[in-house]
Fold Bile acid:Na+ symporter, BASS family.
Amino acid sequence: MAKLVPRGPTLLIIGVLAGLVFPALAAGVRPLMAMAIFVLVLGTFLQVDGAAFRRALRRPLVWLLLPALAMLACPLAVGFAARGAGLRPELIVALVLSVCAPPSSGTAAVARMLGLDATVPLAVTLLSMALAPVTVPLIAAGFADLALDPLALATRLALLVGGAGALALLLRHRAGAQLEQHVGVIDALVLASLLLFAVATMAGMRAQIEAQPLAAATCVGLAFGCNLALQALGALLTPGNLAARLTSGLVLGNRNVGLVWSAMGAAVSPMTALFFAATQFPIYMTPRLIEMLVRRERKENASP
């Protein structure tokens, strides 16, 4: 598995397509999604450099700008833009709810896979998760007239981040040297978790596409458009080289819609569920495009 890590972006696309083509496979691994997310967060904690993480937290871009953009400015801007474009109310609700979610738990792992700095996505994700119990219910109430329990959100996030963080600290303390010797194994476990999650997110998606092909196509198109627009916004607002700008783009574009999805429970409408599932396509397909851009810049910088 470790030998496949450099081909991770391509494998993520294969994982999404496999889950779509083989519905039974996606349904079979769906119960493992929670475990996959935990391993993703744990693996990221084990791989991140503590000193680099603390330096990242001192940057205003990381502790202020990106979390504020991710949790407040972006969902509000998307909501008002969707209203101005005259989209159907149910699509506006789905768009806003997906963007008010904190950055995806796997963003730092994807950044590391692409050779980008994983400390920035990890720091912004953690700070955004701390804001989520306040911002998500407020935005959901304002745009969707939906009441979400902030305490339940906070508990769910605390269990995920606190549990993975505590285990990572314990492993670093007890087996720090061994962890450094097996970085490739950790990378492979993170990639396997990403693949498992990619397949699982497609559970039920094929049936929805077959039942509502036009609605599914609309949702997928909107999901790609929204994700790419947010990634472009992050890239434009971030100073530095292309790698730094693409990293910020990943943070703003890829969202943990599963958190909002689970918090909504039975209140999720069929259209919202369809759109939430559609958001997984750009999350797992755009890393291949980013990989191509990064390789192109590195070749240009290496050429005399």
About this structure: Residues 235 and 268 are 32 Å apart (CA to CA). The chain has one domain: 2-290. The first helix runs from residue 8 to 21.
